[in-house]
Each structure stands twice: as C-alpha cells, then as structure tokens.
Amino acid sequence: MFRKLLTLGAFLLVTQTYSVNVTAAIEKNTKTQTHTIQSDERVVYGVSVSPYVRKVKVMLNEKKLPFKQSEVLPLIGLKATNSEIPDDFTKASPLGKIPAYSEKDWSIADSGVIGDYLEAQYPAIKLLPSDPRERARAKWFEKYGDETLANVIHTKIFIERVVKPLVFKQQTDESVVQKAISEELPPLFDYLEKEVGDKQFIAGNLFSIADIAIVTHFVSLEKSNVKLDAQKWPKLAAYVQRIIKRDSFQKAL
Ligand SMILES: N[C@@H](CCC(=O)N[C@@H](CS)C(=O)NCC(=O)O)C(=O)O
Q1: Regarding predicted confidence, which is higher, 2 or 227?
Q2: Domain edges within the chain
Q3: Which residue, by CA, sits nearest to atom 2 of ligand 1?
Q4: 123 prior amide bond cis, ω within 30
C-alpha cells in the first residue's frame, strides 16, 4: 500500500525546483475532474508528471493529433485524496491506472496499447519502423524504458527525492537514491551509451516510440535533480538533450 501511495504521489508533482504546491496540485486535479468532455474530442487521462502520460502526449504531438488532457490522478490517488471519481476516467481505465485515452465514444488504457492504436489508426507520421526487425528493436527499447529504466529512475529516485518529502512529508532515504545512482543506473547507462552510439535515434533512422519511452524517464531524472554525467556517457547525454529539445517533448513537459 505504501509503495502504491508513493507511486501515486509522483503524479502530484511537477518540479525542478522542489517548490511544488501540493495542495494546489490536488485542487487542480479535483477541478479538472469536473471538466465536461465533448464526445468528439481526443482525451488523454492522467497528470502530466507521469512518465507514461508524457509518453502518450509526445506521441500525439509527433503525429500532430490535437487532444485535450484530463489531469486526473490514478484511481488510488483519487481515493486517497477523497476526490471525485470521474465516470469517463474509470470507463476508459478499468484498472484505474494512467494514462487512458478516449476518442469519441471509444477508449483504451496503457501507454503501450494506446501507442499501438495510434500507430495503426494514424499511420501518416510513423513512430514505428515498418521493417520487422527494426520494429522489434523499437518495441524492445520501449519495454526497456517502461520497465527497466522505470524500476530505477521512477521507483528509487523520483519517488524518494521528490514524492516522499513533498507529498508525504517524509524524509528521503538517500541511501536508496545513492545506491540507485552509483550501482543500478551505471550499467543501464553503459548499455544505452553503446546502443545509441553514433545513431541519431536509438532504434535506427526513424524517431520512434523507443526514443519517447526512453527519454521520458530522463525527464523524471532531471526533475529529481540527478544529472546524467556527460563525461562518462557523452553519446547518451547528447542523445537525451537532442530528443528533449523536440517540440513534441517541449510541449509535453
Ligand atoms: N504499463 C502502464 C503503466 C501505467 C502506470 O503504472 N501508471 C501509474 C502512474 S505513472 C499508475 O497509474 N499507478 C497507479 C496504480 O498502479 O494503481 C502504461 O504503460 O500505461
């Protein structure tokens, strides 16, 4: 339960300065829950600080598909803050997780599933290579971001450094953060440094879902005041900066 609460706390925060007003964030979420969703809009459900919500927003921006955002906490967060639980959100997200996505009278949840839908429905601007092997490689890096990077950056750094002190008024366990920084992140960064190499994009010639799923976690790292050491991982650092500068990311920060 505590881990879940910590996780939900991450959604309340948008900060690089540690100066977030959590009460305002909760009020903001409560307010947006009452927003009436028109039946013909694309809607992304979920608060912006979630790396998975950011992922879906970047995809939509890349594909130049206009959307609205319902800045809603996951169900567990709505319950913990005694907030109203919007019907359209629970309908779109059966597990109460964010992100969820709706379009007209249809909805679906999970950033990976949403991405696959967007790719099939709106293929004009592609975010997955069509070659089967390149495509598989892009999906591999998406999974690597969603799971492997998230398990360290989100769970052990962002939650400790940002969520615990600001949301739960608890002390950061710096030993968890330091262990993650000194022992757990370096092998992940070594791998990415090697894989990025001299490529423009991690899965090949196309900017893809792989770049989005990886770099979304580097945004969380920055928000946790952890700098990627450009001396040790120069190619990875340059790559992350290059991707974050894209309009699609800038609009989703
Ligand atoms: N695999 C899911 C992960 C989504 C996820 O775990 N979202 C978190 C927020 S970052 C959440 O809703 N947590 C609430 C919960 O686990 O109940 C995706 O890619 O959308």
Answers
A1: 227
A2: 2-121, 132-250
A3: 110
A4: no
Q: In this structure, which CATH number among 3.20.20.210, 3.40.50.150, 1.20.1050.10, 3.40.190.10 belongs to the domain 132-250?
A: 1.20.1050.10
Helix %, strand %, coil % of the chain (to 5):
60, 5, 35
DSSP 8-state class, residue 125: S
Examine the pLDDT at 3 and tell me if it is beyond 50. no
The hierarchical CATH code for the domain 2-121 is 3.40.30.10
Top mutation candidate among 56, 98, 113 for ligand 1, by most atoms within 8 Å of CB: 98
pTM over 0.90, yes/no: no
- The residue whose CB lies within 8 Å of the most ligand 1 atoms, and thus the one to mutate among 5, 97, 139, is 97
pLDDT digits (tens, 9 = 90+) for 12-63: 433 333 323 333 333 344 334 334 445 558 999 998 888 999 999 999 999 9
Q: Look-up: residue for tokens 């964010």?
A: 98
How far away, in angstroms, is 21 Cα from ligand 1 center? 23
